[in-house]
Amino acid sequence: MPARRAAKPLQHDRTHDYAHLIRRWRAACRTRGLRLSAYSEVSGYPLFVAETRRPRADRPWVYLSAGIHGDESAATEGALAWLTQTRLGFDAFNLLAFPCLNPWGLVNNSRLDAEGRDLNRTYHDPGIPPTGAHLARLHDRRFDLALTLHEDYDATGIYIYEVKGPTPHWAEQLIDAARPHVPADTRRSIEGRAARNGVVRRKLDPALMPHFPEAFTLHFHHAARTFTVETPSEAGIDARVAAQVAVIERAVRLCLAERRS
Ligand SMILES: [Zn+2]
Known about the structure:
The protein has helices at residues 18-32, 73-85, 103-107, 129-138, 171-178, 214-222, 237-260; strands at 34-42, 45-52, 61-65, 94-98, 145-152, 159-163, 189-190, 193-194, 199-202, 226-232. The protein has a single domain, classed as Zn peptidases (Aminopeptidase). It contains seven helices and ten strands. By secondary structure, the protein is of the alpha/beta class. The protein starts with 17 loop residues before the first helix and ends with a helix. It has an eight-stranded mixed sheet, with helices on both faces. Strands 7-8 form a two-stranded antiparallel ribbon.
């Protein structure tokens, strides 16, 4: 009887292997003309940022981050998959991207960091080392578009937080882009906020949450448009990654179109 050949490994079966993630980012950055560099270290893991090598002042800036919650692997995989799959020319926009803000969490499949903190509630406090290093990289930079990628175990489909800002709003179009892969979340209330067809839109007030999520800092100091993308953790990984890719792609295209108009 012939030996059974080992099944081909699934594309996403190493989603919690940080070194593997960074190796793939390095290769993708080479292809896309981005510089990948370590900007700090936390719990024994280097933290990386990818950046357009020669940014052009007349091009929009796009910000992308993933992996602040380590148990949301379609976020880290989605950012990388977008980078490798997008048909957009990388001379059309400038990019600053954080592949994984919580490597210890990714490796340990944990929402929290090694100190038991939810880093997405620490952006009011630059004294917390990984957050301080991240904030230092943001410094006084301005972005036309900021996307922070997440997942949610309670989600019934994809949903998106859009900080109330410039009109027309984009979240409905971003949900539409993801729809071939995952449906929109059907809940009318998400985390205590009114939701409609997967869109949670709100004005941000610093008093709303004294422990700042990353999106608050982006909105208050850095970005014209800020979105938090949440795919449903219970859906298949390939569909979740495809949904993240579709949202990023549509958002960057909308950003380019807005700049042209
Ligand atoms: Zn999250």
